[in-house]
Design goal:
10 strands, 43% helix, 6-stranded antiparallel β-sheet, alpha+beta
Length: 223
């Protein structure tokens, strides 16, 4: 009887190993494909941000709307110019965002807060570029004893697979660009809203705006 059970366990383990290997192989194959969907260039985004910081440093709203308009010229048909803001709670931090672009492989948003916040950056299968428009962002990795400080015009790159604690000490607005597996970032983006703030209006608005943008991109043939 025990020998029969051992055979069954061995068979189950082999099946799990096979399924696991298959899933890993599938993911690695798709991971090579996802980069074909990239259309944005973080250096172009930074240049657009820096130009508008220089022109509109005393008028945050004008700066942000002009950044959106300039990005539409750079990437026609891929930027949402309708200004719709929604709260974002993730990793203990809170801010508001305007989703300029969302697809399977990329997102571009304006994110920030006028009152400050701090939290965990998240750890993703994606590179994240955080270009400061106004204010400051502080960050550090576990074990670092001196913080990184990012000021207007500077770009904070969080490489794929890394994580940090970050803080917006008083206020800041940023142009944020993520490049990679955007759907795998969504659980981090929704967990606080579902289990902490219980703000289902924000969840609905985020899903509505993100889903609408992703479908629009898919209809254009962009993942």
């Amino acid at each position: 009887m025990s020998k029969c059970c051992e055979n069954k366990k061995s068979s189950c383990l082999m099946k799990l190993l096979f399924v696991g290997t298959l899933l890993v192989s599938l993911f690695l194959g798709l991971d090579q494909y996802i980069s074909r969907g990239f259309i944005f260039d973080q250096n172009v985004l930074q240049q657009v941000a820096q130009k508008n910081i220089e022109l509109y440093s005393n008028d945050t709203h004008t700066m942000i709307t002009n950044i959106a308009a300039d990005l539409e010229k750079e990437y026609p048909g891929h930027i949402t110019l309708k200004e719709e803001w929604v709260f974002n709670n993730a990793g203990g931090a809170m801010g508001s965002m305007w989703i300029l672009h969302a697809s399977i492989s990329e997102y571009v948003i304006i994110f920030g807060t006028p009152v400050g916040t701090e939290g965990h950056s998240g750890r993703f299968f994606a590179d994240d570029y955080f270009i400061i428009l106004e204010g400051e962002q502080w960050a550090y990795k576990a074990g670092e004893l001196v913080r990184e400080v990012y000021k207007p015009g500077e770009m904070h790159h969080l490489p794929r697979g890394d994580s940090q604690q970050y803080k917006i000490p008083e206020h800041a607005w940023a142009l944020e660009y993520a490049q990679g597996w955007v759907p795998l970032m969504l659980p981090f983006g929704f967990f606080d809203s579902v289990f902490s703030t219980v703000d289902y209006f924000t969840i609905y608005d985020t899903l509505r705006l993100t889903g609408k943008a992703i479908i629009s991109e898919l209809l254009q043939g962009k993942i």
